[in-house]
Amino acid sequence: MRRLSFAFVTAFLLGLTWLPALPAAAQQAGQDNLTVELVAESDDPAPGSEVTLAFVATPDPGWHGYWKNPGDAGLDTRLDWKLPQGVTAGELRYPVPTRLMVAGIMNYVYKGSYTQLATLKIPAGLAPGTALPIAVRADYLVCTDEVCVPETENLTINLTVGDGAISAERRARFDQWRRAFPKPLGSEGKFAVADGVMRIAIPYPASAPLGADAYFFPLTTEALTYSAPQKLTRDGDSVVIEVKAGMKTPAKLEGVLAVGPGQGFVLAAVPGEVAAGATPAASVDWSAALVALGGALLGGLILNIMPCVFPILSLKALSLAKSGTSEGHARAEALAYTAGVVLVVLALGGAMLGLRAAGASVGWAFQLTDARVILFLLLLVLGIALNLAGLFELATPKFAGRLAGGGSGGAFVTGALAAFIATPCTGPFMGAALGAALVLPWYVALLIFLGLGLGLALPFLLLGFVPALRRMLPKPGAWMDNFRKILSIPMFLTAIALAWVLGGLKGVNGMAVGLLVALGLAVVLWALGRRQARGAGNGAAWAAALVVTIAGIWAVAEIEKPAAAAETKAAGAEPFSETRLAALQAEGRPVFAYFTADWCVTCKVNEKTAIETDAVRDAFKDGGVAVLVGDWTDGDPALGRFIEKHNRAGVPLYLWYPKGAKEPKVLPQVLTQGMLSALPGDET
Fold first, then answer.
1. From residue 616, how far is each of 630, 651, 656 by CA, in Å?
2. Is domain 567-681 in CATH 3.30.1330.60, yes or no?
3. What is this structure's pTM?
4. How much is the average pLDDT of 257-279?
């Protein structure tokens, strides 16, 4: 009651303070500053089943709603249901919130549209066609940074008992909403209070991404001081949070660890011993940073001899020597080339860091996980190779990517092209340097990417500023044409490597489509070369090349990778699907199905100490056991629904289906080799 009174007083005082500044429309009675739409996942729920209802909230610009624990001020949403006899409603669930500090008061809010979910349980025995009128009154507080207004929505929806069918459009909509909800962490944390400071240790793998704005949102009220800053540190496979303690020390602390925008994990912690975190999230090990910077410089320098970069650098260097330009012009070209390289490397590095901060698990060359980017690179490298081989010429002086042309503009784009094409290549020293960039603060990581770009640009930069080096280059002559054709070979090899990568992403069908598109582009460029030989215009040919490229990128994006080619977590395992499970059961095979996630510490321990051991692998092989693995790292809603069917809120989940059994035996969350090795003999 004290918190409730404080919230109302705060809202009232804020309202009085800013009332004169409010627009007249906002002061009108009944003004809706936040609207709510009620949507059912299925309009025809089956008897004895559950149906999820979504409260889709849309605040007006400048207004916000509140999380379950609103913080120092505010109110959560209160629901008053009117349900048919036998129908019951579950607790209202909230997505991951954001923070808003106003005049030293911490608020846990939603600044844009958000969706809350509640589950209705439909009683068994109802006849199909039975009407289920649902009514609910939602009371909530909606605020700006200056004023708060309590509002009410009276919502109704009419359901009909049926077969529980869910349309594809409705399923996709609800799955999208569920992605914003925190996933159960599955492992219990610990907390301790000493000298007015609360320390919370949360199990979280060292390899799992943790955004720079990570934050612990407490569900247990008054356990910590909301407005106090939180200090997050890593300690091995744990995240340690230090914050000023609140007025009460709870017997159990519950909350949500937000690791990125809209991404988080719900967890509980019990009293226990908690050590201080070993590595502060914002600390900088400058000795390690300097070593990484040196490695990035060397790695970028070595990239120049890789088959995807060397031909471009060689031709650009020879063109500089051949042109016989002034010192000023040579330096201008060198600086432009360097700028192109560095900007592309920084852009790719910055994009990678941004995605990781948003919770994505990506690394250097992250764009190569997209088949469309792979195909674009394949076509680009093929075009360069065919140009070097003499099939056609980049004869237009204004063409930005002209390799043999002069001018700072051409040098800039050539550098950008070299950096972009270099991303599939990896040289010595790069791995350690870029690995360090992933754990250092973003501004230090960008310095490492800057070093990589400078290393890649260094040879041409030296050629532009050191005339003696240019004089050491071979004199121009007829040999250059043969050398140029020889340089096409490593570019063709790079194209082949990219086709192989495309096959890994999209299977044999994807590789075949990529090769067909590459053939189409080659035919267009051959026609372009023929037109150039006759002195005809090039516009139609370039337009045809653009059409082939766009069509190819669209086609390869539509291809689904065969399930058999998908990556699995354990040797001999297949990706989990309910269809595959049913097929294996129909064959009479025993099945071990396990559900894991990269952020689940318990999962990783079980996999390394039990599931992926030779003893268990041999026992399963001798017993003809099929292994299915469900990876819930990205919160796949289909896997989530299957997990919920087995009365589990999250991973780990281990299921054993003996031969001929339709229902599984749910195994403990902590596994041993002996336990799993004995399963093939279990016929119960």
1. 18, 21, 14
2. no
3. 0.50
4. 82
